Amino acid sequence: xxxxSVGCGDSAVATYxxxxxxxxxxxxxxxxxxxxxxxxxxxxxxxxxxxQSTLKYLGGxxxxxxxxxxxxxSFFLGGVCDIPRAEAQINLTAIAxxxxxxxxxxxxxxxxxxxxxxx
Length: 119
Hints:
Blueprint: E1 5-6, E2 10-11, H1 26-35, E3 40-41, E4 46-47, E5 56-62, E6 66-72, H2 82-98, E7 102-107, E8 110-111, H3 112-116
Parallel strand pairs: 6-7
Antiparallel strand pairs: 1-2, 3-4, 5-6, 7-8
Helix pairs in contact: 1-2
């Protein structure tokens, strides 16, 4: 399977769970993503780079185009290639859940890109 290109020659691919309906799809979707403590997603060959992270969904807002998401916690990643993977997993989950065109994610009040920056 392949999807949008994400750092180090990888691609982001959607996975599915049993159907669950909520008024706010973003919170439950991200909470489910963060609750997965397995690196491998079944026997699919797909990887969850967030499995060691301690992220929690605090809230969000949607303006019709951009989903803005507020998280707390810390990232625990396996290396530099996991940075774009983590960004993609969070952004694409939020975008899909909200039906948005883009996501703006903040972790502990800072833009996710700044939190994950190696600078």
